């Protein structure tokens, strides 16, 4: 699998977009029960606050540097290591395209029926050879054990190579970790990538993303829900990174590469 390097206490996978796409599709082809996280600032800060969530993130087979600050921090903590951002919103269409080429099947789980319907329509129009074996939007409440068992059985019966999950962070990451060993697929927590791929939510142009402005755009779209996550959490991330870099500069050992 892809090598990992520490960002604070989170183990972040490294490599090019092509490396990530190939590694994920290999996991899907092997039908091993694995899961992939797309780590942004919110996720890294949450892992610092919550040891149980840190274990969920660090035990992911792949933890992609989804946020630009997280990708940059790979280099800050590991001299000479340059890492591009590997965003779920970019990797979802790339994975679907390559899955169609390799004749691998996919399943969409999460979000709403409206979003799923638009996603499936786009995928079938643009990728007629893509094998879409299922799409399901679970209720917005905790499932009973019986409901969860039924949904797990339905996913396994559909037998996808890749299972794309959009339940929101940290719910989707906890869900994937809880279902590792129970679902025979590579699970990917891509969250907000669903409505973007469906064409129901716009994304900033590339030049604005290079300036790390995507968080500001999302905050503008959903200020009530996201103000705390972005204003408080982003500030917390910068504080934690600065404190750790100062500690390293006065003689604390540099975190070593981590390999599975």
TrEMBL record:
InterPro entries: WecG_TagA_CpsF
Keyword Membrane appears in the UniProt entry: no
Source organism superkingdom: Bacteria
Keywords: Glycosyltransferase, Transferase
Keyword Transit peptide: no
NCBIfam families: wecG_tagA_cpsF
Official protein name in the record: WecB/TagA/CpsF family glycosyltransferase
Species the sequence originates in: Hymenobacter yonginensis
Organism phylogeny: Bacteria, Pseudomonadati, Bacteroidota, Cytophagia, Cytophagales
């Amino acid at each position: 699998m892809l090598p990992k390097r520490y960002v604070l206490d989170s183990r972040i996978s490294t490599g090019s977009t092509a490396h990530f796409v190939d590694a994920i599709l290999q996991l899907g082809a092997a039908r091993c029960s694995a899961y992939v996280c797309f780590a942004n600032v919110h996720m890294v800060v949450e892992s610092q606050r919550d040891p149980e969530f840190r274990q969920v993130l660090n035990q992911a087979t792949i933890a992609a540097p989804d946020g630009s600050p997280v990708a940059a921090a790979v280099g800050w903590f590991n001299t000479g290591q340059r890492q591009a951002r590997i965003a779920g919103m970019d990797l979802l269409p790339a994975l679907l395209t390559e899955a169609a080429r390799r004749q691998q099947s996919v399943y969409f789980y999460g979000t709403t029926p409206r979003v799923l319907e638009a996603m499936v329509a786009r995928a079938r129009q643009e990728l007629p050879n893509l094998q879409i074996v299922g799409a399901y939007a679970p209720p917005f409440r905790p499932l009973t054990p019986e409901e969860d068992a039924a949904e797990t059985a339905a996913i396994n019966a559909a037998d996808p190579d890749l299972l794309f999950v959009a339940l929101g962070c940290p719910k989707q990451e906890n869900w994937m970790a809880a279902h590792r060993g129970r679902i025979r697929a590579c699970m990917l927590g891509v969250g907000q990538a669903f409505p973007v791929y469906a064409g129901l939510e716009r994304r900033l142009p590339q030049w604005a993303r290079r300036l790390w402005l995507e968080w500001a755009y999302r905050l503008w779209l959903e200020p009530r829900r996201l103000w705390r996550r972005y204003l408080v959490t982003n500030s917390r991330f910068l504080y934690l990174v600065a404190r750790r870099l100062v500690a390293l500069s006065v003689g604390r050992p540099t975190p070593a590469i981590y390999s599975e």
